[in-house]
Amino acid sequence: MTNIDRRKLLQILGVGAAAAGAGATVASPASAAPADPAGPRKVPPGKPLADSAAVTPKPAPPLARMQGDMRLLEANIRSTGLLAASVDEWVLRAQQWVNATYGNRAGYVPAPEDGRTGWPTMFALTRALQLELGITATSDSFGPTTLSRVGATTNGSPTNIIKIMQCGLYCKGYYGEDISGTWGEVTTESIHQLRRNMGFTDVNYHLSPKEFKALLTMDAYVVVENGSPAVRSVQQWMNRSFIDQSWFYIVPADGHPSRDVAKALIWALQIELNVAGANGNFGPGTRSALRARGAISVGQHDSGSSNFIRLFQAGMIFNRYPVSFDGVFSQSVSDQARLFQQFVALPVTGKGDFQTWCSLLVSTGDTDRRGNAVDCVTTITAARAQTLYDLGYRVIGRYLTNVPNTSLDKNIKPGELQTMFNAGLRCFPIYQTWGGEASYFSPQQGHLDASLCVQAASGYGFERGTIIYHAVDFDALNTDITDYVIPHFRAIQNTMELLGHPYRIGVYGARNVCSRLAALGLTTSSFVADLSTGFSGNLGFPLPYDWAFDQITTITVGSGAGQIEIDNNIYSGRDPGQSRVRDTSAKPDVRFDMSYRSALLTALRNYLNPLDTPKVGLIHSIEEALDKVLAHDELITNLSRGYNVRKALLQTNPFWEYWKQTLEESVADAAVRLWYVYRQQLEAWENSGHLGTPPTPMPERPDSSTGVSQIFAASAIRARNWAKGRGLVPGAAQDASDWHVMWDTWRSLNENDNYNISTVPLILFEGGHRRAGISGQRLTYTDQEIEQMLASYQGDGSNSVVYGRETMGVYRCFEATNALIRN
Amino acid sequence: MTTVAGHPSRLRVALTWLAGNALIGYFWIFPLGAVGGLVFYLRARIWNDVVPLYGRDGAIGVAILIALAATVLVGCSVLFNRRQARRAGFPARRETRLVGALATIVVQLLPFAGFLLFTDRTVPPFF
Asked: Which of A84, A169, A609, A740 has the greatest number of C-beta atoms within 10 Å?
């Protein structure tokens, strides 16, 4: 069955995309999943690839063919997401062959038959090879025994070993000559291509043991996932230069300075420095050898067999600094070294000195460095503060909360911040409840964390705009970051946005975590966990561009009462920390205690029932309005803490307006919706070049007071623009004359209670400022100021005075209950 | 259940009359309740001592709705009660009509009175 026939079959069965993928497998090997070690599947020499049919495998017996087709179909159906990109027909055939051949052998673990290259398939091939070599104690690892037994694979090798090699080629994205077991010209060309991609320039007609080992890994030898060609060329040079060294195994040439690559670089440096017992770890021996070697300066170059300067250049390239890779320490390399030193807060010498080497090679850099910042779980007393100040530390990271259900008491203690400020220290807050494993992170947890950190930070009086560092305290792999950490931080960002951005979001984590979150705009500052050198997210990853604190060592300093264990942090100056907090003598509000509900309801009824205000025929009762407000208590509490105002101020208008809703308002909302639907249809009709008949015009009704708090879109835009203009919330002003903006805002107000309620404080602040010149946000507004702000909700007409007076009574009911709860 | 004179029994007519007028009375809650809101609008316009539920457009809309609802309900009421009077075979005397009209008004106001006195005065859930 040709690929075209297969495509037809799969299209008939409703998996057309998969069929396209199957057909495209040969023509487009890059269609493998991102984790695949994609390589160019080569056309057999003399057989130019005109179309997919040109490389159609040999016809199989009908039954086997059908079974293969059905397995391919199953694989397509099983795989989720981009079916076409995740299934490779040749990989599937390799999996089928190795399972069929070795499935009954002891020590063999079958490969999944899903058409996707992955470690399980590579392990299956490795075990198959071991069985062929007579190794009964098989393992997933291509270890020394396998290496010593396999020897060079040539066209005279056993058929099955050649077939395993050809399966490996298919899994790597090269053409494997139909897994024929015959080493023909196609296999030769694929091996040449593979070796060229690895970095070898010589022509070989065999596959060395190290190359075979590399073949059965998930390493890629072409640039993948935005890898750097410059990094790849260094990786290829390493393969070429060190392949004959017993300690060296072929590293990936994918443009990413991964853990193995970074380790190989250190190993190469150890060999270069004649470090005894070279092992790829950057230990004391390597450090002292580096110190002894002295700094590299402009004009020096490698000579003979020395690669010292080239290794320095490799380190620079791995850290994304564009230098030539020629073994010459030119002025241009020196300039780049200066930039690097500046970026990582080293003395700017322009030389390849010890500290620069350290920072290039390991995440901690020179661990003897003393930074200007610390973080600690210990309470900062006056004596400890003095110790830290005397040692040159100026910024102290302290925890906002303890971890629930643990005995560790690490949070900021009452008066501690003032002690720090008095000693000339500043503080940066860290939020960490757990965060020690991937499963902790989720959108729900992110929302909760944002909420709790706002409550905690506002409780300590941290000013708006303070950066709070949320901890990701585990070795997060790329997939963990994608699947768990990013959604978690997106939820934090969304919640902060809803709360009017009371605090900026920072992250504590490995380099890769910090960089990826920053790249997505989810964080504004990074506190890098470089102390954890073993984290896969640190090794091989450059320091994030927005790093503020770089945690490199844990040390104990001071003596007596001033003694304290700290994490020593290098400080970039990007986040100066907080040198003051607002007065917290007035207690902020807390979450509503539902045992007070009936008392509050009675108080509201007692006030409202005798009140001379329209209350017949409203849609909602007093009780319903109260429950509506209490249903949003978490949001309102966080808003009040974020803006540092009384919660009752933010409860009053939503309660009143929800209670006062009538059917007439629903009619008005419907009219607005009809108007904008008409505008959208009209715009579409105009954009189509007046195709067909124009939409039926609707009465112009661009705005209405809508949603739980009955807010006009124009009022919301005006209030938000006012707040943006004063830096109260970030973002650019919006144009209320643009009907698209009006429609988006109106719809948000109408459909999203959270958005609606989060707009209320801005309307009150803007109204209070406009009406009575009230500026700033505080817990200590006077009753007159509160009444003016509440009155402004009704506009500036004479009715607003009555409105302010009436709603002031509601405010008092809420505030009396809130005061009982918070005290 | 008919009488020998061809009229339905008076009990049946009375029950139908009571149920029909109670239903009409239920629908009177809306225009009558809306009148309350309109009064506040007028008070706000004239004396400026209260906050109305709506602005000018809303007031006009509500007034129109009240007028329409009242017209429909009065029409329904007249037609329904005349029919019941014919069914019961009441004499078309002026006194009888007056008593009947007063009784009808009382019955029709009962749902509104209940709404005012025994509920939280929100829009009835029936609607």
From this structure: A169
